[in-house]
Amino acid sequence: MLNAAGEVSASDLRDQVRDFLQSHDPAQLSRADFLRARFDAGLAWVHYPSGLGGQGLPRTMQPVVDQAFAAAGAPSNRPERNTIGLGMAAPTILAFGTAEQKERWLRPLWTGENVWCQLFSEPGAGSDLAGLATRAVRDGDEWVVNGQKVWTSSAHIAQRAILVARTDPSLPKHQGLSYFAVDMSAPGVEVRPLRQATGEAEFNEVFLTDVRIPDADRIGDVGQGWAVSNATLMNERVSIGGGAAPREGGTIGNATRTWREHPELRTPGLHERLLRLWTETEVSRLAGIRLRQQLAAGQPGPEGSASKLVFARLNQDVTEFEVELAGADGLRYADWSMRRPDGASYANRDAGYRFLRSKGNSIEGGTSEILRNIIAERVLGLPLELRVDRDVPWKDLPR
Ligand SMILES: Cc1cc2nc3c(=O)[nH]c(=O)nc-3n(C[C@H](O)[C@H](O)[C@H](O)COP(=O)(O)OP(=O)(O)OC[C@H]3O[C@@H](n4cnc5c(N)ncnc54)[C@H](O)[C@@H]3O)c2cc1C
Predict the structure, then answer these.
(1) Which residues surround ligand 1 with Cβ inside 6 Å?
(2) Which of 37, 139, 171, 202 has its CA 20 to 30 A from that of 313?
């Protein structure tokens, strides 16, 4: 049913899911066929345009559809395996890709047939991303890429990657960059695991040696790589920090469950800490809802940095609380064998894993120091940081 303003209502969306399930029985279809059909019906990401898996609806309607499919026991696209694809590559392709690129990449991305990874950071360029050294040199209808990337999450399961590379070293560093999509099975792409404090190798080093990328896989204009990368980074912060966990979901849910189930572990000091963490998590959750409502209007701005900053601090505080609450058991670590997981999941893991994994939260997707700079300069309008910037001669730096 349409509401009074002629818009699609939640009950209309539930009806659409019911009708879809009547003609597409998940028990009779392969997972991929079911998900492709769901995409074609505009029931994938409802805020995307018609023809690209959505219906141009507010982003806040998405949970209605997801819950209706989950209640029917339908297979999901396993978003936890493709967080970079769904949260970062897709909105960037939508904003800067050509019609042909959107048509070619978005459906297999959403269904999970193509997992995407992010080839941004390098050994000499993390916070100062624009200082990256990976080169892409034009050769007819192709680009030849050479360089080394690092900390590349999920590169070992990815079919595609978003890449930023230097295409004109004669220009100031922010202007000489271009943005590409890379086929991870192309000759010259080598992925090597990097083991983390958790014992696992969730991320990798990626070596690119004479990798050929068709010009048709360039996203945005030549030289526009910095603007395109910024769209990715803004979406990354919202994707990490603006998650849609339910009340008492996420890491605070683990802490409160242990608290309720093990009264013998409680102390007055821990009680006060848990109350504070619970309240702060709830405030952050509500702020995240408001952020997603604002996002319905377009690309995220620097405000997403605050969500990511608070997420990192709270996740570290809550997981530290969990380890302390567990007493001596908190020192146990279930499995330190070297594995290459599909993604980082805090569910079904012990407190020790969550404690160690959360340490990366204040580094990945922009360090907390860099996010504070962004908030200071671009949200609060405070004076610019004094940067030792390669493009600015020392004598011209502001004092
Ligand atoms: C779990 C995890 C997953 C990751 N996944 C990916 C991925 O998939 N793809 C990818 O491309 N990258 C990934 N990264 C890399 C991440 O984006 C970088 O580690 C991050 O941007 C910081 O860069 P850096 O490590 O080079 O540190 P640096 O930039 O060298 O920073 C070192 C320290 O100096 C501080 N610092 C630097 N500049 C300033 C400044 N101007 N003001 C104040 N302090 C400053 C930083 O905050 C930090 O504490 C991942 C990282 C982690 C931890």
Answers:
(1) 117-118, 120-121, 126-127, 151-153, 203, 360, 363-364, 366-367, 369-370, 373
(2) 202
Helix (H, G, I), strand (E, B) or coil at 106: helix
Q: How many helices (H) and strands (E) does the chain have?
A: 12, 7
Cα 177 to ligand 1 centroid, rounded to whole Å:
19
What whole-number distance in Å separates Cα of residue 73 and Cα of residue 236? 30
- Compute the chain's Rg from CA coordinates: 22
pLDDT above 60 for 390: no
Tokens 């377009």 sit on residue: 298
Q: Which residues are catalytic?
A: 236
| Burial annotation 255-278 (CB, 10 A radius, 16+ → b, else e) | bbebbeeeeeeeeeeeeebbeebb
pLDDT tens for 126-177 read 999 999 999 999 999 999 999 999 999 999 999 999 999 999 999 999 999 9
Amino acid identity at 360: G
Indicate the top mutation candidate among 88, 120, 121, 368 to test ligand 1's pocket, ranked by most ligand atoms within 8 A of CB: 121
**pTM (2 d.p.):** 0.92
